[in-house]
Task: structure prediction
Amino acid sequence: MATAQLTSVILIDVPVSQSGQASGLQSTVRQLGAALGIAVLGTLLVSTLGASTANNLSSVPGLSDSAQKQVVSVVKGSAGAAIPELGWMPGGQPAQAAAESAMVTAARITTLSAAAIILLGLLATLALPPMKPQDQEDSVQAAPSPQAALE
Result:
């Protein structure tokens, strides 16, 4: 929803002859940022899910180390999509509960990280110097120099 307004704000000071290039550059940077953000947050989610699942499974009684590693591998490899299927396996209810808890933890950490990144962006935006109104810039440029008034 904000893309059209953002493009207008960015292009307001760009000469019409260069507006196509500026619009293309803005679109490219936006898409690159979105792809990079998704990659970073996705990596954080999956790695946190794996670590948290391993940690939670260590407290499940009667689950061997090899079974724990296999569950972690399946959960991490599926990015959590295989968690419901763990409960269908014989004795899989505790493993499913541990993996579900790990998924909640991973989602919380990822969401809070995304919120922190957005907050940093907001703070960076607020730190930008204020823009001069266009009328003030024109009047400063159009004002005659003191030497010209003496001549």
Q: What stands out?
A: The radius of gyration is 27 Å. Residues 69-122 form one domain. The chain has a mean pLDDT of 86.
